[in-house]
Specification:
about 500 residues; FAD/NAD(P)-binding domain; FAD/NAD-bd_sf
Length: about 500
């Protein structure tokens, strides 16, 4: 395997977007949707079709964030989820979940065909497999639970991937696509339906019905927060979501034959799917799951993933690599509905647990129905303000992890004696300069970049991502560039510039 390329999403590179820099922020709208990813644009389109005036406010570019950095499997098979979902919430809840995800898949299929969106939508079967004897029985239970929930799922020992699989759950009739081409098509349709899509307008605050953005304010009757991680510090979402990251590598398929189907290892989380770009069959492989900002060598993990894909998926030359950022909830269900108990005009969609293509689409349908005053069968199930007693322990455990980073990292950093001059090109460290902690990185050209080491969200110390050259917060998943600019929320303010 040759050297890995610089991080760049295949989806972003191969789907140029129209220039919306001249689109102004309107003074008012019936609905302001924060975030131009799959949940936000689906919500916006359905509301625009329902007769509402809609503005979509995107901090950067359409589909260049989380939705443009995914493996883009459009599937109702969400790993080995249904057995746990049924055990925790009951068979009826599991059936409702399966129906909403399947309906989302079919809506994407029908809408892509109706609008002529060239997004490479391709039907494919999906496998969740294991190479470990101890996991076989749990996959048999998963197959039974998924089938009982209404999915076309069954246990099999036939897995079409070069791995020593002992068994798998196969779900037929699923799909994959090019996510950014799909979302650019949705954005264009929002505009054709009378909506407005504004880029480079980062939402920074909500005062009453006024959304404050970096490009001006808009007054909205309803506000939908579909920013992946909710950017408004209300509802304690930071305490109820776990930010995780998976790495992705892609390149031409060996033998000019892309994998047929979608594959996920139930134990290691390695995943594989095929894709054809400009006539070239490609392999897309994901894995190396870790918590955002954890003290890991991301570059080594990319290398490890590339080696695995070389050995098992026919990916001998990596041309693209990127990372997927996901939010998971403790009780396995997303948060889709009113932002807080009692709020009438503020809505949220988050926590899709690595399955945002159908999860975000389903969320758009739930939110649009509720805002338009229509019933939706998943409204209560996905309600962000639901109470699940078993979740209390999971939330407590996750917040102990946050406390470990918040306190432990500070203590460790205060004992470090590195000096800025000691940093070699390519190195980065949180160091003590005088009485303050500084996040310092010396780039390959020898230039020193220093910023405050405390995340502007809630003050945790950031950690350096050596592959993507970002400072990542392990507490709630915010990410910053080496000069402090916000790359990913929930933070909305940049890191303070540090000493030279």
């Amino acid at each position: 395997m040759t050297a890995l390329p610089e991080p760049l999403s295949l989806w972003v590179e191969t789907a140029p977007a129209p220039d919306r820099t001249g689109v102004p922020v309107p003074e008012s709208a019936d609905v302001a949707v924060l975030g131009a990813g799959i949940a936000g644009l689906t919500t916006a389109l359905l509301l625009a079709r329902g007769g509402r005036s809609v503005v979509v406010l995107e901090a950067e570019r359409v589909a260049a964030g989380v939705s443009g950095h995914t493996t883009a499997k459009v599937s109702a098979q969400h790993g080995a989820k249904y057995a746990d979902l049924t055990s925790r919430h009951g068979e009826k809840a599991s059936q409702t979940y399966a129906r909403t995800q399947t309906a989302a898949l079919e809506w994407i299929a029908a809408t892509a065909a109706d609008l002529g969106i060239d997004c490479g939508f391709t039907r494919a079967d999906s496998w969740v497999y294991t190479t470990r004897e101890k996991t076989v029985d749990s996959l048999k239970r998963e197959a039974e639970a998924a089938a009982a929930a209404g999915l076309p799922a069954a246990f099999t020992t036939d897995v079409g991937l070069d791995v020593p699989a002992l068994g798998a759950v196969r779900t037929t009739g699923q799909a994959h696509f090019h996510p950014r081409r799909w979302l650019l098509g949705l954005a264009a349709e929002v505009e054709r339906a009378g909506g407005t899509v504004v880029e480079n307008a980062r939402a920074t605050a909500l005062n009453g019905q006024t959304v404050r953005t970096s490009r001006g304010d808009v007054v909205a009757g309803e506000v939908v927060v579909a920013t992946h991680y909710p950017v408004l510090d209300r509802g304690l979402y930071f305490a109820r979501l776990e930010p995780v990251r998976d790495l992705v590598v892609a390149g031409p398929a060996a033998g000019n034959a892309a994998p047929e189907g979608m594959f996920l290892d139930a134990d290691t989380h390695h995943s594989v799917r095929g894709y054809v770009e400009a006539g070239t069959p490609m392999v897309i492989a994901g894995g190396e799951h870790y918590r955002v900002g954890a003290h890991v060598h991301v570059e080594r993990r990319y290398r490890r993933l590339a080696d695995w894909a070389d050995a098992h998926a026919g990916l001998h030359r990596v041309t693209h690599r990127w990372s997927a950022h996901d939010m998971s909830t403790v009780d396995l269900l997303p948060y889709v509905g009113r932002y807080l108990p009692g709020t009438k005009n503020l809505w949220v969609a988050t926590g899709f647990g690595q399955w945002g293509m159908t999860g975000g689409t389903a969320a758009g349908h739930v939110l649009a129905a509720r805002i338009l005053g229509e019933p939706h069968p998943a409204a209560d199930l996905f309600d962000p303000n639901r109470f699940d007693a078993r979740s209390v322990f999971g939330v407590a455990e996750d917040n102990l992890t946050v406390a470990k980073y918040l306190i432990g990292d500070h203590v460790a950093a205060l004992w470090r004696s590195e000096k800025l001059d000691d940093l070699a090109p390519g190195d980065a460290e949180v160091v003590r300069v005088g009485g303050e902690l500084v996040a310092a990185h010396r780039d390959e050209a020898g230039r020193l970049h220093t910023v405050g080491a405390h995340c502007t969200h809630l003050g945790c110390l950031v950690s350096f991502n050596d592959a993507e050259k970002t400072w990542d917060c392990p507490c709630h998943g915010s990410r910053f560039g080496v000069d402090g600019e916000v790359v990913q929320g929930p933070a909305v303010r940049p890191l303070r510039r540090g000493p030279a």
